[in-house]
Amino acid sequence: PLSEMTLPRSKWVEIFKRPKIRDLGLRVQIPESMKIKLTNEISRSEIQRKIFHQLKSLCKECEFEVKESLGAATTIKANNWDLQFSDLGLKPSLLLPAKADGHLLWISLQIKIYREVPITTRWIPAASRLQPGDIAMKKMEISSFRDGFLTISQMEGASILRSLSVGSILSTSDIKREPTIRRGQTFKAYLSEADFEITINAVAEESGFVGDLIKMKNTESQKMIYGRIENNH
């Protein structure tokens, strides 16, 4: 915060008599009093640190490259300042509002986003089903993607909605998934630990895909339980 203090001449004389300063051999004319004003300067590195922290909270798996522009300034000088992150998203470019002593400033951001995503390992025609080995994970730039991504296990057996060449990124809009388990379907559920395994017959109370936690009913006890779909086998 901005602060100001006045030091009398006697205090300055005391400061300049300190050995390390006195040994410099300075000749100083000291007025009766001097004012010291402290200002809060926020540097580009501090702004970048805060932006990176917010971006990481939006995507923990992602890596970011950020270029920000403050115009000609290298710092923001203000008594009170605050970056407004309500509109910050995973977008390639945006304007980030900042308040400095009640004045609104705009910081221009150029953002590159990288993360491991599924890509095709061969040419896949439309309407065909994904087979093991059709997909691999690779770190790619996804700055312009608006869709989400699934894991390889979540996509196995899914249908492709459009033809994809080798090395194409697979997003959720490229595939059509059939539920791994449908509501009303009977199946075996497993509870396993290091030294034992329990198997029960269950009926699904809701549909779900690999990775989903669904409600099911134990057909023997009629009790409701929850289980996670581990695979599509």
**Judging from the principal axes of the Cα atoms, what is the shape?**
elongated
Our estimate of the beta-strand percent is: 35-45%
Q: Which structural class best describes the helix and strand composition? A: mainly beta
> How many DSSP helices?
4
So what's the oligomer here? single chain
Question: Would you kindly provide a brief summary of this structure?
Answer:
This protein has 233 residues and is mainly beta.
Please render the helix and strand layout as text.
Elements: E1 3-8, H1 9-16, H2 19-22, E2 33-38, E3 40-43, H3 44-58, E4 63-69, E5 75-78, E6 81-83, E7 93-100, E8 103-120, E9 135-141, H4 152-155, E10 159-160, E11 175-176, E12 186-192, E13 197-204, E14 213-218, E15 224-228
Molecular structure report:
The protein is mostly beta strands and 233 residues long. Helix content is 13%, strand content 40%. It has 4 helices and 15 strands. Strands 4, 6, 7, 8 and 9 form a 5-stranded antiparallel beta sheet that branches. The chain has a 4-stranded antiparallel beta sheet with strand order 12-13-14-15, with no helix packed on it. β12 and β13 form a beta hairpin. The longest helix has 15 residues. The radius of gyration is 31 Å and the shape is elongated. The model has no long low-confidence stretch (mean pLDDT 82).
